[in-house]
């Protein structure tokens, strides 16, 4: 089995998308089927659209086609769709858009109300596919009905909060979606408990699978970079620690 070093984990995670607005620079620009180049824009830290992240054409980035609120993350859907996943109440929502169909809208439409609202995604065009998975799923593998538009995605690792019944129960989980197979695996993080960590202040921001060892590495805000055991639920080791 390939040894995973701290530098290798950092390299893997540097290519892993994190939540907006903090990780908006990890969102890749992409080219649509019609050959249009799309880019992401962060709208600063002041004013009625502060911290908003929007998608637009490269030649007109200020004409928004999609607006994202806190905790949204991008995933690409081969061959030419774009997906967004986000928390939606006690569910995880996966929405899929055809970028060539996205209509432009004025940012005045979202100014003021959108950022503090419970809405995560704003678009003038409906998604081509949209579905939710409950956070209440127990540990292990589950069958899910995945819209056909998303079945080109092999794997999507979703870090999320998890309902803990006590301070010694997992307060975070990784939901591993296998859309192509119609499966979802819930991996409660047995090491991440309220008795060991400051839940809310410390949280798992990103996780990805090492393509060589198939082990999962991740990043915990305020703590460091970690490697999980082969079961994906237990902490193997901290590869690096955040400077206090």
Salient structural properties:
244 residues, mainly beta, five-stranded antiparallel β-sheet, 17 strands, 4% helix
Short characterization:
By secondary structure, the chain is mainly beta. The chain has one helix at residues 6-14; strands at 30-31, 37-42, 53-57, 66-68, 73-77, 81-88, 91-97, 121-122, 129-134, 140-143, 156-161, 172-178, 183-188, 203-209, 216-221, 224-228, 235-241. The chain is 4% helix and 38% strand.
Topology:
Blueprint: H1 6-14, E1 30-31, E2 37-42, E3 53-57, E4 66-68, E5 73-77, E6 81-88, E7 91-97, E8 121-122, E9 129-134, E10 140-143, E11 156-161, E12 172-178, E13 183-188, E14 203-209, E15 216-221, E16 224-228, E17 235-241
Structure description:
This protein has 244 residues and is mostly beta strands. The chain has one domain (6-241). It has 1 helix and 17 strands. The strands form 4 sheets. Strands 1-2-3-4-8 form a 5-stranded antiparallel β-sheet, with no helix packed on it. Strand 5 (73-77) and strand 6 (81-88) form a beta hairpin. It is globular, with a radius of gyration of 18 Å. The two termini are 32 Å apart.
